[in-house]
Every structure is written in structure tokens, then in C-alpha cells.
Design goal:
membrane, mainly alpha, Helicase, Ruva Protein, domain 3, 0% strand, 2 domains
């Protein structure tokens, strides 16, 4: 029974890739480093933060964050340093300003244009008069009678 409880506790614990040699001695700095790491994307694993990633690059980024914090940088300075070095892709939630504003607004704008175009098409189609088929000419009627006789 103890093994079952222990196994469930281990499975329920969040996966942390932070190695013991990375952990800072100062618990306040370590807490800041962990909080920053949760918002930074592993550049190898894509949508996984560096705190949970086992990739070598994620480890390097975790060490870099801790080095910057020990050097006295603020949280914003650490983030700015990483964005300058790796681009905004390193952020799990990029800012909605500047060049990224185009990406944030393009999807909803295209949806609005598509829905407007569909509504306009349906309205014009409904309002258009039904075109009656042209009557058959005398030659066409004679040809039809000939075909139907066979």
C-alpha cells in the first residue's frame, strides 16, 4: 500500500528539469529564476518552458537566467537580454505590439473579411432575379422530337 501511495505522489508531482547543480543558494533568487523560467520557451522543444525541458539549450538558458539574476539584473532586464539575444520567440506569450501586432490582428481580420464576403454574396444571390431558361427554337424542337421518336 505504501508503494502505491508513493508512486501516486511521484506521478502527481510536476516534472522539473532543473538539476541540483543549477539551483541557487538564495531562495529568493531561485524563486525569481523559477518564475522567469516558466515564461521562457525552450527553443528546441517549442511549446515547453525551460523549467520543464530536459534539452541542453534549455539548461543553458536556465543557467543564463540565474547568472543574470546573481549579477543583479531585474526580471525585466533578464527578459530584455534574452529577447535581444534570441528574439521574441523565446517568450511563451509574445507581446502584442510592434511587428507582432500584425500577427495578432491578421487572423481576426481575415475572419471578418471572409464572413463579410460570404454575407454579401448570399445577399446578392438572394436578390438576383431567377433567370428563366430560353425557349427552344423551331430547329431545336424538331431535333428533340426526332430524338424522342427513336
Amino acid at each position: 500500500m505504501r508503494w502505491l501511495i508513493l508512486s501516486l505522489c511521484l506521478l502527481a508531482a510536476p516534472a522539473q528539469a532543473v538539476q541540483p547543480d543549477e539551483i541557487l543558494a538564495d531562495p529568493v533568487l531561485e524563486a525569481r529564476a523559477r518564475e522567469l523560467s516558466k515564461g521562457l520557451r525552450c527553443l528546441v522543444c517549442r511549446n515547453e518552458n525551460i523549467d520543464e525541458s530536459n534539452a541542453d539549450l534549455a539548461r543553458d538558458l536556465r543557467v543564463l537566467v540565474r547568472e543574470r539574476l546573481v549579477a543583479g539584473d531585474s526580471d525585466d532586464e533578464v527578459i530584455a537580454y534574452l529577447v535581444d539575444r534570441y528574439g521574441e520567440y523565446v517568450l511563451l506569450q509574445p507581446t502584442a505590439s510592434g511587428e507582432n501586432l500584425i500577427l495578432w490582428t491578421a487572423g481576426p481580420a481575415m475572419l471578418i473579411v471572409a464572413l463579410s464576403s460570404a454575407a454579401l454574396y448570399l445577399r446578392r444571390r438572394k436578390a438576383a432575379p431567377d433567370a428563366a431558361p430560353a425557349p427552344l427554337s423551331a430547329d431545336e424542337q424538331a431535333r428533340l422530337k426526332e430524338i424522342l421518336k427513336k
